[in-house]
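Input/output pair, single chain:
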Amino acid sequence: MDKDTLIQFKQVSFTYEEAPKPAVQNVTLDVRRGEFLAVLGHNGSGKSTLAKLCNAILIPTGGQVLVEGIDTADEDNVYEIRRRVGMVFQNPDNQIVATIVEDDVAFGPENLGLPPAEIRTRVDEALRSVGMYDYRLFEPHKLSGGQKQRVAVAGVIAMRTDCILFDESTAMIDPQGRREVLETAQRLNREAGVTVVWITHFMEEAVSADRVVVMDRGAVAADGTPAEVFADAALLSRTGLEAPHAAQLADAVRAGGVPIEGGALSPQACADALFAAAQKAGVV
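Output:
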């Protein structure tokens, strides 16, 4: 296993009990250390199953998943795997276990048997890293959806895992909360070197990823940069996905005869491309 590979899928399949066909089938895929990997796909494409296979919540029914060389199928390795790969679920209410924010963040480190002083340090650092330190004595049920999700992220950070899986973690929160959680994940990746696997059906959330994997009918349909994936109209059509709104706007403007350069995947990139085209045309 390459030292730059954190998680490795080797011809992995998984079938749920009583299911007529595999949710994931014959997937071979590497998650690289330090990358921000976005996994896209419509409902039922296998992306959430893929996430749960990464940290032994699910065990392959075929093939092998390795985390830093450790086989997830070995029950004796589950503890070590989850110390390396943490997960933030779709609904934060399913992940918060305590009645006070700082107690919830301390739950994982306490289960590691760490001394109280170390736990205190980890909790404070984790809450500061997600911008929730001032809420440490709040009751979680009084927080917004985005704030709850950031508390859930802090709980994983306090475990000091090498990788954090975000399994559609913005699906149940408002747009402001979505931005808060995504920006937190991006900052952890950029500043702390945490490997991020971001499972989503929001195309806009994938545009700044290092790499995009598209799942379709349990298999990997595409693996490339955001620009490569979103430029493939046939792929998007075949997998039931759409390009980000900014890219759709840029395409519409091009169709109208304005020569916009570049992919223009984000609103800022689209605005910059429009401005550059206007300058070239002498409009501004």
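The radius of gyration is 20 Å. The mean pLDDT is 90.
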